[in-house]
């Protein structure tokens, strides 16, 4: 009957106090709720995702440390105390290691590329907010190096090979592996089908290479050959989808700079 009276009205504060009285361990659940609220505040007020992640991690570590020490103080049995001390040190070292990993990953991008992951998530979210769901999915499937390649490519046209000045000597370079990755996500526009260009190159004794670092290949091409203009004019660039990702990247960086 008293319990019913104490719980009348379903006042959340009264329910919480009563739960702690009945089961003291519930106070840790209340602590988790407070932690979640603190995390939400940090994420809302934080000037960057890195700051928010580090701050939330610090809260978690503080909570766990407080719990361990509070439990240790309640143990009086000499048989259990050594085990508790070992557990305390194990948990303390584990969480200290976790803090080091998170901090180094946030500020130095290693051993876990946290900074790159956060930027990619923010970029995909921004693309999704503007209704570019295909671009958002493409961003999630790209490596960090491929995203950097998008910045390098920007809205310019890029040649794979070129003719030396006043010469019929054609010089062919390799295509960055990241460009192939971008092409797999349908983000590259070629001036002519890549397979067709590869056949022309092969017909003239050259080899189309992706990613490998090597000396440029050279071959003399007769100006009267139909391959001359095909080789001279071949180029690639970001297509509309790739350009939209490039602009989202610029916009995301500008927004981050504005918050600082």
Structural class: mainly alpha
When the domains are counted, the total is 2
* Helical proportion, percent range: 55-70%
Mean pLDDT across all residues, rounded? 78
- The share of residues in extended strands comes to 5-15%
Distance between the termini: 58 Å
Q: What is the 3D shape? A: elongated
Transmembrane segments: 25-45, 50-73, 85-108
Keywords: Membrane, Transmembrane, Transmembrane helix
Structural notes for this entry:
The chain crosses the membrane at residues 25-45, 50-73, 85-108. Keywords: Membrane, Transmembrane, Transmembrane helix. The protein folds into 2 domains: 2-114, no CATH class; 151-239, no CATH class. The chain is 65% helix and 8% strand. It contains 12 helices and 6 strands. The strands form 2 sheets. It has a 3-stranded antiparallel β-sheet. A 3-stranded antiparallel β-sheet has the order 2-3-5, with no helix packed on it. A hairpin with a 5-residue loop joins strand 2 and strand 3 (169-172). The longest helix has 28 residues, at 81-108. It is elongated and about 95 Å long.
Q: What is this entry, summarized?
A:
The protein is mainly α and 260 residues long. The chain has 12 helices and 6 strands.
Looking at this protein, list some descriptive labels.
about 260 residues, mainly alpha, 2 domains, three-stranded antiparallel sheet, 12 helices, disordered N terminus, transmembrane, transmembrane helix, membrane
